[in-house]
Amino acid sequence: MAPAAAGDVPLIQSFLRRWRRTPAQLDDALWQQVCRDCPWLRPLDDARIARLRGLVLLFLQRKTITPVAGLELDDAQRLLLAALCCLPLLEFGREGLHGWSELVVYPDAFRVRRSHTDAAGVLHEWDDELIGEAWDSGPLLLSWADVQADIADPQAGFCVAVHEMAHKIDVLDGAMDGTPPLPRDWQRQWARDFQQCFDAFCARVDAGRDTAIDPYAAEAPEEFFAVASEYHFSAPRLLEREMPAVATHLRRFYGPSPFAGAPAPRP
Predict the structure, then answer these.
(1) What is the sign, positive or negative, of the torsion defined by CA atoms of 126, 131, 133, 138?
(2) Mean of the pLDDT values across residues 2-7?
(3) Which of 17, 240, 244, 250 lies most in the core, judged by the most C-beta atoms within 10 Å?
(4) C-alpha to C-alpha distance for 260 and 241, rounded to whole angstroms
């Protein structure tokens, strides 16, 4: 096929933008339904709901939501997924949507093939079972069953959509390292406080001691940030009790948690 002439490229790009620009507006009744049904949206004030609605509309214009493995999603479910993905962007803004174009939704946990070559040159391959994943420059993947489980128990400390969106925000500065793009002074404070909390948490996990926070946070600094983000939205009082410095940074970064007034669960 012959390449398009230079003068045709803007026309083609304009056509593609129009083709993907659906919907132009959100259906009011559907949006109200999602706001009523989603436990993270119900506590938001009018100003934050309006801001979220704008982000969701942009998400639906820019992103393709692709259900796979026989899963079917109706308009309300697609709108719900977009809202959950945009929830961590209420303060950060639309820049958090840069760098990727597709949300892939599996019916349940899914398997990903991994490989690693060790220092001796030996190739190791294995399968990981995941409920979510965020590729550096590729799609965001979610398990629909786990999204539903999070909604059914919204203050349990888990929200897989927030977790994976935290990774997408984290990598915007070129490195997935647990430190998202921040002003320089704040970045230094963030790196210092998160590193101290991460080191202390890892020491506790390595010693075999129980932790109120999911021990998966000890896997790497980027997982520590993503897991802490889940707790900010789903169990903020627990996060404040266990990691006050981290909780303070995340309140500044994400804004107040929808469940800020909920009591912390007993350890």
Answers:
(1) positive
(2) 42
(3) 250
(4) 13
